[in-house]
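Glutamyl-Q tRNA(Asp) synthetase
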Amino acid sequence: MPAFPSTSPPIVGRLAPSPTGAQHVGNARTFLLAWLSARSQQGKLILRMEDIDSPRIKPGAAQQAIDDLRWLGLEWDEGPDVGGPQFSYVQTERLPLYEQALAQLKQAERIYPCTCTRSEVAAAASAPHAGQEGPRYPGTCAANTAALASRFVPGSFAWRFRTTDERLTIHDGLAGEVSCSVNQELGDFVIAKADGTPAYQLAVVVDDHAMGITEVVRGDDLLPSAFRQQQLYDFFGWQPPRFIHVPLVIGEDGRRLAKRHGDTRLATFRAAGIAPERIIGLLAWSCGLRPTAAPIHARELLADFSWQRIAKIPFVFTEQMHFT
């Protein structure tokens, strides 16, 4: 019987490390799942360096992230080290694209200048707490128009996106249907910082659209961002990607993996001569893809990969799991 070509759109996934520090096993787990999902569907993978958070960027961290991912056995089709049709795969080199999007938002009055500081937002009596997202913005500057920005001292204000009252429902690839009233639960959000650099929400949407990303795999701490980004996609008239938010790796204290839980940096394991297959084996077991944490190469996981097998609870990384 002749094989008929698939009518499904091609899968384009992405790996998007942020060089604000060294990549650790928690980052690696999410990257592994993103890689497995795209490759198991014969999809393309793009590596994008998300380095717009300038004050927190660590020198050499971008190259180290690339080295760590390749050491794990993950590879990609486009990126800062291999090139591709995009003029750049580094966010700080893509600023003109974000500026164009910001101009459209200003013209449509969907953003406004906001002079509120974080402490002022937190102290506002009418600002209920939105879980990990911090306090909901109370709308202090919402009456401002985009044109009013010319009256403020440059660098004294950020730009906030006007959210709508509609209740959005997103079908997450792991969590299923999740709903949120963005304005009531999250509030208007920062789209460009006081120094003029784009905020995460704008840069990610512009880049994912420009790069043709169809599938976004990231930590479930970013699930609220999907609703913010959905409103941006709706404004620009762009098709959003499929979102898959995966549980985080946490320490025994129940908090997300950090320095306080010991040295879990991939670079440390690499320098100590730890085989990458040991890392992959532990991560595969933690996700529910393997019955044990026995060493395995990432490519050996492709044949049996399915999101239906992935655990929907956080993985606790214990002291006994350190490789050194």
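thats it. Residues 25-40 form the longest helix (16 residues). The radius of gyration is 21 Å. bye
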